[in-house]
Amino acid sequence: MVALPQAAQNGVPASDAGAHIAIKGLSHAFDLDGQSLPVLADIDLEVRPGEFVAFLGPSGCGKSTLLRLVAGLDHPTKGAILVDGEPVLEPDPSRVVVFQDPTLYPWRTVWRNVSLGLEARNILKERRASVDDAIRLVGLTGFENAYPRQLSGGMAQRASLARALVNDPRILILDEPLGKLDSLTRIAMQTEILDLWHARGFTTLLVTHDVEEAAFLAQRIIVLSDRPAGIRKEIVNDLPYPRRRGAPELAELRREALAQLGLDASW
User: Fold this and answer.
1) By C-alpha distance, which of 164, 182, 199 is closest to 6?
2) Backbone angles phi, psi at 164, to 5 degrees
3) Is the preceding peptide bond at 242 cis, omega within 30 degrees of 0?
4) At residue 10, does pLDDT exceed 90?
5) d(Cα 228, Cα 60) in Å, to the nearest integer?
6) Which of 101, 119, 148, 251 is deepest in the core (most CB within 10 A)?
7) pLDDT of residue 3
């Protein structure tokens, strides 16, 4: 686990390495056999440099689509996304995505999977030490020469995180990265993600269906409506880090988020 600097222990990321994100009048639709399927509608949102923001919403409402647009993997139908004042037009190594599936190449070792981005950019020779550092940060020292088939689900996701971190991202985009892990591994990985965020200071966007996960990790929770998704509610979570999962304040935040999702009847 990453040792946190004093600033991080007080709940403040260790650096200002994160990017500012401005989403302005964003709408998006898919073209399905000549028919337009609206997915996102008139989203306006600003994310401060180094902020940790989680997105909740009904299944299929467009949460992952929004993250893909921020990453530059797709282009919005309407509106704009600006990162530090510059429009997002294409993918960039400063904005990296970690998906639910680790998507590791089975024929490459952990080290060679983590180094893939640097290799593709032809800068691996001068950045080899960065690969070792990223592997150390996610707790996989000793597994550099292991293949994906030899890793547990949590270890594979750590390798995926290391592959993202080696690019020194200013924005880390997490699309349900813990969704397929068992509950104990998921809890451990949540803490490790917070440690990495505190240590590196990148802006973090998380899509999750787990309300408790969003409340534990994020400084702000954006609740999206049914498709075409707009912002239903912004919930500010100003609890300091480190947080206690059993804190009554977190329970109240969970209740508020569930109420926005119409799922608080049994709470």
Assistant:
1) 199
2) -75, -45
3) yes
4) no
5) 10
6) 148
7) 33
25-44 tens-digit pLDDT: 999 999 888 889 999 999 99
Quick check: 253 and 235 in contact, CB under 8 A? yes
User: Could you tell me the pTM of the whole model?
Assistant: 0.89
Distance between CA atoms of 120 and 7, rounded to whole angstroms? Answer: 35
CATH code for the part of the protein at 6-94+169-260: 3.40.50.300
CA trace torsion 2, 161, 12, 15 (10° rounding): 90
Contacts of 215 by beta carbon, 8 Å cutoff, 6+ apart:
221, 237, 250, 253, 254, 257
Backbone torsions φ then ψ of 193, nearest 5 degrees: -65, -40
Q: Per-residue pLDDT for 5 more than 70?
A: no
Give the whole-angstrom CA distance, residue 201 versus residue 50. Answer: 5
Q: 265 pLDDT exceeds 70?
A: no
